[in-house]
Amino acid sequence: MKLSKMTALLAMSVAMPAAATELEVTHWWTSGGEAAAVAELAKAFDASGDKWVDGAIAGGGGTARPIMISRITGGDPMGATQFNHGQQALELVEAGLMLDLTDVAEANNWKEVVYPPSLLDACTVDGKIYCAPVNIHSPEWLWLSNKVYEDLGLPVPTNWDEFVASAPAVRDAGKLPLALGDQPWQSNLAFGAMQIAVAGLDAWKAVNVDKNMDVAAGPEYAKVFEAAAAARELAKGSAVQDWNQATNLVITDQAAGQIMGDWAQGEFQVAGEVAGKDYTCLPGLGLNEYISTGGDAFYFPKLDDPEKEAAQKRLAAQLVSPEVQVAFNLKKGSLPIRGDIDLSAANDCMKKGLEILAGGNIVPSGDMVWSPDVQKQNEDLMVEFWKSDMPAADAHAKWVENLKSGL
């Protein structure tokens, strides 16, 4: 009885501030759709009596993470910071620089409501929880402009193979078959999406979970690299830098499609596009409808200020709350990290993702199964591959070498 009363008091304390406290929150959400989504987090925190001080860093995670880490290790920590699910903050946690949120998690039943459990497992170190997950993002989606195909008198493709077959007609019509931005992570994302779609789930698990290097070097993955080489041809002429610029090529019907994560939905939404009418989304590139459970979580650097620490815990609890989960994810295009909330307002694409999630057709993200070093090596390889005429077989061999370095 005594323990339950203490738990109830803690839940109240993280929800009801005695006085407003400012917290700087760093993140890399700067596109139109992302800004609309993060505004929901700020609005909720401000409405609760505290103050969200926005610390957006342009350029994506690859640009933002080193800045965030440098500030934390250099003695200039922010109140909260975004990282992806996985191992990105592990060294900071192990160095004792991150706030333990286990009391908040227990008071708000995170282990019972957060799904899949891997989201909390990814930031649990020595039995203690160090992050507040906010969404599930999956990169394995193909986004298509319905109008491009309607103008050509062609049916909208239902999978990657049909998309590739339609590419010559798209190119002949003066349109770009595949939009791809020039940021390094985008080519790496496209390749990652092809892994499950082309190689299949069993081969993906053998390589990424079981670390079977014979499968990695085998015929299933040779097909993945051949598909990537074909996609490289389809993307020629895609002279944009940022991912949302590539998405805009699809929105404005200048390009037929884009391989991009479900955060692209935020851009379509801001542009007034309707899922299923103006654009089509194919999870798993329409070949294998599995999604990886990547996404975003917030970590809270240790601060030498009891009032700010209390505000950090209030924000952590709020990020996982049902109301914030609905408001944020509807704008972000991502899936919620809890299955007990009302998402009746979800659009056609979000419903597809929710069905896949509910059916258990999920795999861990690359951040969860490979070290940052291996991921960086493969990102560099993908940049070289997509920007050159490197043969698929050569890229395949180098990729296997990179994986072996992480064993």
Q: Which SSEs are present, and which pair or pack?
A:
Blueprint: H1 2-15, E1 22-27, H2 32-47, E2 51-56, H3 61-73, E3 80-84, H4 90-94, H5 102-107, H6 110-113, H7 118-121, E4 124-125, E5 128-129, E6 131-133, E7 141-145, H8 146-152, H9 160-172, E8 176-179, H10 184-199, H11 201-208, H12 213-216, H13 219-234, H14 243-251, E9 255-259, H15 264-270, E10 279-283, E11 291-292, E12 296-299, H16 306-320, H17 322-332, H18 348-358, E13 362-363, H19 366-369, H20 372-386, H21 392-404
Parallel strand pairs: 1-2, 1-3, 8-9, 11-13
Antiparallel strand pairs: 3-12, 4-5, 6-12, 7-9, 7-10
Helix pairs in contact: 1-16, 2-15, 2-17, 10-11, 10-13, 10-20, 13-21, 20-21
